[in-house]
Design goal:
By secondary structure, the chain is mainly α. Helices cover 66% and strands 3% of the residues.
């Protein structure tokens, strides 16, 4: 096992991998409750959505561990699941919505096999690669702060401080404080302990919800959704291939999946020590192959698009260095399919500290950007600001790519722009116009 996962070679241990894997799982376990509730609005049976969410995440996370041997976990992506539930499903039915996901995943997988997705990553300027890590750090921290009720939406100021008297707010602040203190004291598993202690603290405050049951059954009725027949008697995948509007949506979601994973891989690589100085991610092709296949698998099982989770950074920051941690995460997701009520005890407020602290760690990349150079600095700024402020990894990256090309042209430095950066910028322009 040590030689297969290269545990000793990467300065880790079995116990460290298992502990950090648990950190990753707890940080992303909210998806077990959230995704089914969203998909249920689309018409997917609740029990089937739980089964698809857990087993889809389990299978693809284990595949990431075995094939790529990197600490990146996968599960149904937030944002895409909302698009499926509130836009595509009302338009064409939930089976057709899953067929759109299945199709875009298959196309992305083809692009990876052809080397295009990896080639585009290689064409990104180093300054923008660092900017993606910084933008993701702020984005991750923002997710944690919002989930903990520390920041809330405000019609007048867009965002403001939450209710300091709220139990959720209090638990979230406690989780941050504990994480910082334990990390500062060099306690192993600091972020994991921060989550566990916050869950316990949340019990008397009513933030940690006690389970109403323990065991839940499995429902496979959503499996094979793209090939199921809808109310109109037409197979879902056929409906997508013959409906121009649905094909446009497939392209839009493909762009989102395509670049979301790019940002997530760089963010996790930074924390997991497999990001090179020039921003290149080690084993990126294997990572992209698994991630691309995951999108198609998500559509097939009826779980929405399964994608690399940015919360994986919490486990990487806590010591995950190999795929063994992901095999463990996958096993936990498999068990969660049977014990979903228990997993629901982990509140988003309890994981706030881990996410905010990871955001802090990722800010170190900001010093690698030459802010005095307009061609490097301004596009980088657009990514750093764009990712959290649009609440979209792909949108922020797109803003930076377009800004880089436009700035290069007006500074008479167009020759510095690699051909695939032109392609990517143009694709983002089309994406912004049709999304």
């Amino acid at each position: 096992m040590d030689s297969f996962f290269k545990i000793s070679e990467r300065g880790s241990s079995v116990s460290q991998e298992l502990r950090s894997g648990l950190t990753t799982f707890l940080a992303m376990s909210y998806i077990i409750a959230v995704n089914p509730s969203i998909l249920a609005a689309a018409g997917v049976p609740q029990a089937a959505a739980v089964t698809a969410t857990c087993l889809g995440a389990a299978i693809m996370t284990i595949m990431m561990g075995l094939i790529a041997n990197r600490p990146i976990a996968l599960a149904s992506g937030m944002g895409v699941n909302a698009t499926v539930a509130y836009t595509l499903a009302p338009m064409a039915g939930w089976q057709a919505a899953m067929a759109v996901i299945f199709l875009e995943g298959a196309v992305i997988l083809l692009l990876v096999v052809c080397g295009l997705r990896e080639a585009i990553m290689d064409a990104i300027p180093v300054s923008l690669r660092h900017a993606i890590s910084v933008g993701l750090g702020i984005f991750i921290a923002m997710i944690g702060l919002a989930d903990g009720g520390i920041i809330v939406a405000n019609e007048s100021t867009m965002v403001s401080l939450g209710d300091v008297h709220s139990p959720t707010f209090i638990v979230a602040v406690i989780s941050i404080v504990i994480s910082v203190i334990l990390w500062g004291l060099h306690v192993k598993g600091a972020l994991l302990l921060g989550v566990v202690i916050s869950v316990i603290v949340g019990i008397p405050l009513g933030v940690t919800q006690m389970p109403t049951g323990i065991v839940s059954g499995l429902d496979f009725s959503s499996f094979g959704a793209p090939f199921q027949t809808g109310e109109d008697g037409v197979a879902a995948i056929v409906k997508v291939l013959t409906t121009p509007t649905l094909l446009v949506w497939a392209f839009s979601l493909m762009m989102s999946d395509f670049f979301d994973t790019m940002g997530t891989a760089m963010a996790v690589a930074k924390q997991g020590d497999f990001l090179e100085e020039d921003g290149t991610v080690d084993d990126i092709k294997q990572i992209l192959i698994v991630d691309s296949a995951a999108a198609a698998v998500g559509g097939f099982v009826g779980a929405s698009s399964i994608t690399s989770f940015v919360e994986s950074t919490s486990g990487a920051a806590d010591g995950a260095r190999t795929g063994l941690s992901m095999v463990f995460v996958g096993i936990l997701f498999f068990l969660a399919a049977f014990f979903a009520p228990l997993i629901g005890m982990v509140s988003s407020a309890a994981t706030c500290g881990a996410l905010v602290f990871v955001g802090y760690l990722m800010m170190s990349e900001v010093k690698e950007i030459d802010w005095s150079d307009l061609l490097d600095g301004f596009p980088a700024f657009m990514i750093v600001a764009g990712v959290p402020l649009t609440y979209s990894i792909s949108s922020g990256i797109g803003m930076g790519f377009i800004a880089y090309v436009v700035t290069a042209v007006f500074l008479d430095k167009a020759k510095k722009v690699k051909p695939l950066m032109w392609v990517a910028a143009l694709a983002f322009l089309v994406y912004f116009l049709i999304v």
